[in-house]
Amino acid sequence: MMTSIQVREHAKAKLPPPLVKIRTIERMLLRHATGPIPEARLVVAVICQAMADCRSGSKDDRRTARAFLNGGDLDAWAALVDLNPAFIREVAIKTHYLPEAPMTTSGAVPATIATGRTHAGFQSRPTHM
Which one of 4, 37, 44, 94 is most buried, counting C-beta atoms within 10 A? Predict the structure, then answer.
């Protein structure tokens, strides 16, 4: 007979080992990034750190990293260096850094959109001068 602990352990799926090192993904993203080199390196480092955090760290760190990569925050960061966020997600999934996002049918709106918070903490500049 299975106990509740065994059921929880069984339900917890582990990711297979990553296919490439995170440094390889970082170099690839840097080749595609545009803009000033120091800023591009910083943005790509933030994105790659989120990928690495999906595999290690505390449960909260993994949850936060997955929310970043699956949400609008990645879109904002990727736009800074002209990277396609869908491509970044695909790379993260195919290299086993990010588990495939479960499809939801509830029509839930991501928290950053529902609260009206600006993505990745960026503030929009006024257009009038």
Answer: 44
